[in-house]
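INFO batch 0412 | record 1 of 1 | parsing
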Amino acid sequence: MKKHILLSTAIFSFLLLSVPACKKEKAPAPKTKTELISSSPWVFQSASASGTDISNNAALACVKDNSLTFAAAGTGSVAEGTIVCSPTTAGNFTWSFQNTETTLSLSAGLLPGGNGTFNLVSVDATNLVISQNVTIPPSVTPILVVFTFKH
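INFO prediction complete | emitting tokens
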């Protein structure tokens, strides 16, 4: 009987020691907005005004094939596609987050009729959503336009 208890204890101890300790893996820290915005170039996906899709508006044609690149150091660039805006929006800019990262401030406008200050609606690993009051011809009244860009 003692042999049986001793053998059972030995087997149990061996199994207990041979099973690796269970460790919970820590979830990776969420990326900062700077890391998300600067991870790769952004291209136009859509635009809407007052809930209406205006992506096919002729005034936005020159923006739809552009790509935006943000560097973590606060610089960036716009590369025009085959349809060039007039005046061109291509070139380099500096950028920063303002107002506790709710405003995206650029030293140059991204859109004809717009300026360099955007409300940051959201940014994640695949989408950048910004909004701005823009005057889209033939209208002379600025309207809030929400722009979505994707990687």
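INFO post-check: The longest helix spans residues 2-18.
INFO record closed
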